[in-house]
């Protein structure tokens, strides 16, 4: 959601103020689904407080795709744009406060923003940042071992290690919780390096 970039683009604050009454503010306990896999996404989501994850059902086993935190936005984008069932579930993993902006109002907001000076460049930078991140994640999952992915996570995104439960981190890395414990044990003994 575009509002996650308010700090980088302060002129978005006037849009936030204008669109705030059109958003649903929800206080949600941990493990609350914001969107179910297979349902068409109708909202852009902005996180004021808390942590959410996206995951899909992999033959009865949950596979975590990504984590999102304060001041980040998300949606099941393909579902949201193309009116197709979402390939994954969006769920809170901490007590969270989220804002939901309907598709109608999100499109209206984007249409208004197209008249802003430098909006296209800003939007391209935002999109490039996300695509670069996801491409890196995809390549890492193919190329790197679970140990390398854990070390990268520890070095580049330590807040995930600090805030997210081990079972979700294991699911994100594509390993069992037992395997994750072994990785952490090797790291504690100094037997694991980049």
Automatic annotation (TrEMBL):
InterPro entries with a match to the protein in the record: cNMP-bd_dom, cNMP-bd_dom_sf, RmlC-like_jellyroll
Residue ranges of the TM segments: none
Pfam families, alphabetized: cNMP_binding
Source species, domain of life: Bacteria
UniProt xrefs under CDD domains: CAP_ED
Domain Cyclic nucleotide-binding: 28-111
Secretion signal span: none
Protein name from the UniProt record: Crp/Fnr family transcriptional regulator
High-level lineage: Bacteria, Pseudomonadati, Bacteroidota, Sphingobacteriia, Sphingobacteriales
């Amino acid at each position: 959601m575009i509002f996650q970039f308010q700090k980088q683009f302060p002129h978005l604050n006037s849009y936030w103020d204008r669109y705030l009454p059109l958003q649903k503010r929800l206080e949600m306990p941990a493990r609350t689904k914001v969107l179910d896999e297979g349902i068409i996404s109708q909202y852009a989501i902005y996180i004021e407080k808390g942590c959410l994850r996206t995951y899909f059902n992999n033959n009865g086993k949950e596979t975590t795709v990504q984590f999102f935190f304060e001041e980040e936005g998300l949606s099941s984008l393909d579902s949201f744009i193309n009116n197709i069932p979402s390939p994954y579930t969006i769920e809170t993993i901490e007590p969270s406060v989220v804002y939901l902006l309907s598709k109608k109002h999100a499109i209206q907001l984007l249409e208004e923003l197209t008249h802003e000076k430098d909006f296209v460049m800003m939007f391209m930078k935002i999109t490039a940042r996300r695509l670069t991140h996801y491409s890196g994640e995809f390549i890492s999952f193919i190329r790197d071992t679970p140990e390398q992915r854990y070390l990268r996570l520890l070095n580049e995104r330590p807040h995930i290690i600090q805030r997210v439960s081990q079972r979700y981190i294991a699911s994100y890395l594509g390993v069992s919780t037992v395997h994750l414990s072994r990785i952490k044990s090797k790291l504690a003994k100094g037997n694991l390096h980049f």
